[in-house]
Amino acid sequence: MGAVGASVGCGDPVDALGDGSLQLEWEVNPLGCEGADIERVQVSLQSAYQTYEESFRCTDSGAILSGIEAGTYELEVSGNNDVGRPIFSVKPRKVTVSAEKLNTTSMIRLTAKPSEVQVVWGFENGLVCGANGVSKLEIAFYDDQSFEHERFRVSCDAGSATAGDLFAGDYIVEVSSVDSEVKFSGFEEIELERGINVDVRVELKPKTTRPSTGEH
């Protein structure tokens, strides 16, 4: 009878494949690490089962992450300033790490991270939305040249709303009632830096209109 090839029985141990590695390269557009005030690049790999995080000098321009269990991960990379705040970022991407292999991904191009603003509102008279006959509010963001950057409607009872993807700069935040018998509005000025999250409170007051005199 001919020889039979070796096989693994049900109870026999099976050696697991070794971990993999991931090679990264990054650039900071358009001014580079020093011009953008970035000290460190933070790298995060996340899956349903594992998380890997490491930090590197921005000027290294690249790194290799070793000892990564094989699988598919979401890769997030940020550029942090000297106090550790992420001010540059890139859209997260999926990467696959194969066992016992040096894996690569395309160039990571970091650009300025937008800011996020939470708008909180209240009425000057101290009453709640329903007592003022207001059910909907409209929120708008204007830059210092009066260009509109954001406009959306929310339920007044929500008490707050968040706007993201705002670039650094000076803004006017305007909040006004929608379709209410008495028109309420208010605004506040804010200054945004790259990658920050801020809160702003807007007080709503009755909006008075000057009666027409009939003169033109």
TrEMBL record:
Q: Which organism is it from?
A: Bradymonas sediminis
Q: What is this protein called?
A: Uncharacterized protein
